[in-house]
Specification:
Helix content is 23%, strand content 24%. By secondary structure, it is an alpha/beta fold. The chain starts with a strand and ends in a 9-residue tail after the last strand. The mean pLDDT is 93. The structure holds zinc ion (ZN). Zinc ion is lined by residues 7, 9, 42, 69, 108.
């Protein structure tokens, strides 16, 4: 059985890194300890980790999905498993153009008043 968590940030996030204090390694360790075996790291308009984090996760039984939290207008959208991510603020048309069949687009907090 797969247990996934598809919306996470860590201390290198250009936006949430101001208050998120855990490293990506600590995040992966915590996910593994909680029995989560699919984890998407979705930092704001950035992918501030490399293959080392992916290998570190795999060694702990966690599949690390490449993700990003994009900004569309004043809203946030999670993009997961894209081959190429739109750069900077983008439009839904940019996302549709970059989306591969295996990619996911998720509204991370649809009821949050600021996006
Ligand atoms: Zn987020």
């Amino acid at each position: 059985m797969l247990r996934g968590d598809l919306h996470h940030h860590f201390n290198a996030d250009p936006v949430d890194g101001v208050f998120v204090q855990h490293s990506i390694g600590e995040l992966i360790d915590r996910a593994a300890a909680c029995g989560i075996n699919v984890l998407a790291v979705t930092c704001h308009e950035a992918i501030p980790y490399d293959g080392d984090a992916t290998r570190y996760a795999a060694e702990r039984g966690v599949i690390l999905l490449r993700g990003m939290e994009a900004t569309v207008g004043s809203e946030h959208v999670l993009l997961i498993n894209f081959r190429e991510f739109p750069q900077g603020k983008c439009t839904m048309a940019d996302i549709a153009a970059a989306k591969d069949p295996g990619a996911l687009v998720i509204a991370p907090h649809p009821f949050y008043p600021l996006g």
